[in-house]
Amino acid sequence: MNKLKFAIFTIIVLLALYFVYFVTYTFVEPKAYDYMVKHVLTEKLPFDNKKQIYGSGDVILVMIDAKTAEKYRWPWKRETNCKLFEYFIKYAHPKVLVHDSILASLDKDNPESDKKFFKTISKFNNLVSGFMPSLQPWNDENFGKAYDKAFEEKFRLDVENKMTSEPDIYLSLMTFPEPYFQAVKNTGTVSLFPGFINGNLSSYAMDEIYRTHEYLIAYKGRLYPSLALKTFMLMRDNPKIKVTDSYIEFPDLKYKIKHKKTKYQIFTPIKFYKLYNGYSHPKFSAVDIMDSYDNLEHGKAPVINPELFKDKIVIIGANVPAGTGLNDNRNTSISPNHPGADIQATAIDNIIHNDFLKIVPVWLNIFLTIIGMLCVYGVIRFYDLFKSSLLIIGLILGYFGLSALCFYFGVVINVITPVVMFIVTMILAYTHKFILENKSKEKVKSAMGKYMSEDVMKRVIMNIDNLGLGGKKAVVTVLFADIRGFTSMSETMPAQQVSEILNEYFTEMEPIISKYNGIINKFIGDAVMAIFGEPIQDKNHAANAVRCGYEMLLKVKELQKKWVQEGKPKIEIGIGINTGEVFVGNIGSVNRMEYTVIGDTVNLASRLESYNKVYKTKMLISSSTYEETKNFIDVIRISDVEIRGKSHKMDIYEVLKVLD
């Protein structure tokens, strides 16, 4: 039964630990990740003194921003965009031009404007335009099948797919208008999905914070690149791709991206960079590019030198925070207002520089957590509270230091989950230790209770921090009880049989003494010394002592009948009781002491017990005890008794009967 209880308890503890781990990992760990990314991991991109811009210099943003919207009223005709694109195709010549935008409908009011725009972008072979997959199924299934087929034939990714299974979450696409579909030569998904990835666990869209990027999406059995991946491929002349459950590989480049494949998506954590005025990459206002185009067309100096963009990756995006419908800010680990185009730029920068985070595998996170938990338990098990607390604090601080160091070097490790598990282990360990210590104390108390009075033991425990020699004066009643003829019985009987008789006798006497608020001070061979009035406070201690002695005599009569039937000798006892002032407290040495009473009162009680032999009586009490109990006892007075050690004679009393 104990094994079953232990098994049930173990299962409950393990389930509780798993629950805490899961909740902490799911809801708290992402926040700790964000903190580390923002304050420890995030690094500055280099500063180009010559061009006076921040960033790697490989990726540059051109943004339709508030400055642009102020000059060119939004929404504008699409032909207005032509100035941007013509600037790059005629003058700037970037390596790749990225259009971070979705075009899903025609401008029916300005069809000629649309035609100019589509004609302009059709000139580009190095333009990557955005498309968006959808979680909703096609409204028109037949149209959807036809569009899927056309989209696959033109834009699918030629890849060696070695994945054991493909994610399946997207059910349709936001469609391009036909002329735009014909004009665009390269596409990449611009979808950004909030969530958290670490090890083998992922939580999706729980806090709407963007931390990851989908370099690949699976759609209807085919793989399609993100805007960032397609940009990289154009930049590197479309290298061969091999995809496994863990990596996107470029065999010819000897380069691969580690990702996490789930049932629905393929994730790679983004390594963010520090922001300057809201952007981590160099950013120019679209209006300056458009004005530069106008100037160049009229033979004037451009506002922005087109040489700045030569052989670079240029992302054209839009972000006007309010009032125009162009707000593209997202909540990321480093900012609650991070422009979507800059997130795309970061994903591109990560891939072209192989600047990715290294995710510690889940088994290693769990292993480190378990090792730490075992250390916490061991420290608490073998050290006192002060030392164990210091060591655990040191362990927690040390782990925080380790995790910070890992993040500093781009290694993502669980930050808060192990610490929470350490704290939970600490609570469990201290609880377990408390239970064990209590069990140990109960065992000690149980064992000590067999050697001393329970009440004395309680007194010792209550004053455990102030134990010492000394005590106080108090009025108590002392009872001595002795077996008659014990010496001769010991000489004629085997020691084991004598021991059995004594044990049975003492076992029967102890509860009687306790019943009347007495404590057994000591066993002296065949004698018992009991105290009434201390440490148990009892104003009727004399009466209770006499009642106790009388009941002891009655119990001995019962035992005599039993022993006779068992062939054992018939024994008698004598009892002496005296009431008076004593010194009660701890007597002995500083290393070994005993709680007892001393004084003339004790000596007289012992003398009275011995006088039972002289007067052939069974219970004698002193005159002081008699005065306290005379109202309910029948006695015979024995007058003028000379007591050894006393200078004058005194009366003593034989108790014949205790009246109810």
Q: What do you see in this structure?
A:
By secondary structure, this protein is an alpha/beta fold. 43% of the residues lie in helices and 23% in strands. It contains 18 helices and 33 strands. β18 and β19 form a beta hairpin. α10 (362-382) packs parallel to α12 (416-448). The model is unreliable at 199-205 and 463-468 (pLDDT under 50).
Q: How would you summarize this macromolecular structure in one to three sentences?
A:
This protein is of the alpha/beta class and 660 residues long. 43% of the residues lie in helices and 23% in strands.
End-to-end CA span: 49 Å
Helix content: 40-55%
Portion of residues in beta strands equals 15-25%
Low-confidence stretches: 199-205, 463-468
Q: Structural class from helices and strands?
A: alpha/beta
Q: Domains counted in the coordinates: how many?
A: 3
Number of strands: 33
Q: What would you report as the Rg, rounded to the nearest angstrom?
A: 47 Å
Please work out how many helical segments DSSP would assign: 18
Sheet having the most strands: 8 strands, mixed
**Shape, per Cα inertia axes:** rod-shaped
Mean of residue pLDDT?
87
Features:
660 residues; alpha/beta; Alpha-Beta Plaits; 3 domains; 8-stranded mixed sheet; 6-stranded parallel sheet; 18 helices
Task: Outline the fold blueprint.
Elements: H1 2-41, E1 47-48, E2 53-54, E3 59-64, H2 66-71, H3 81-92, E4 96-99, H4 111-121, E5 127-131, E6 133-134, H5 141-155, E7 159-161, E8 172-173, H6 178-183, E9 186-189, E10 195-198, E11 201-204, E12 212-213, E13 216-219, E14 222-225, H7 227-235, E15 241-243, E16 247-250, E17 255-258, E18 260-261, E19 266-269, E20 283-285, H8 286-297, E21 313-318, E22 329-330, E23 338-339, H9 340-352, E24 358-359, H10 362-382, H11 385-408, E25 411-412, H12 416-448, H13 454-462, E26 470-484, H14 486-492, H15 495-515, E27 518-524, E28 527-532, H16 541-565, E29 572-588, E30 593-598, H17 600-615, E31 619-622, H18 623-629, E32 633-641, E33 650-658
Parallel strand pairs: 3-20, 3-21, 4-5, 4-21, 5-9, 7-15, 24-25, 29-31
Antiparallel strand pairs: 1-2, 6-8, 10-11, 12-19, 13-14, 15-16, 16-17, 18-19, 22-23, 26-28, 26-29, 27-28, 29-30, 31-33, 32-33
Helix pairs in contact: 1-11, 1-12, 3-4, 3-8, 7-9, 10-11, 10-12, 11-12, 15-16
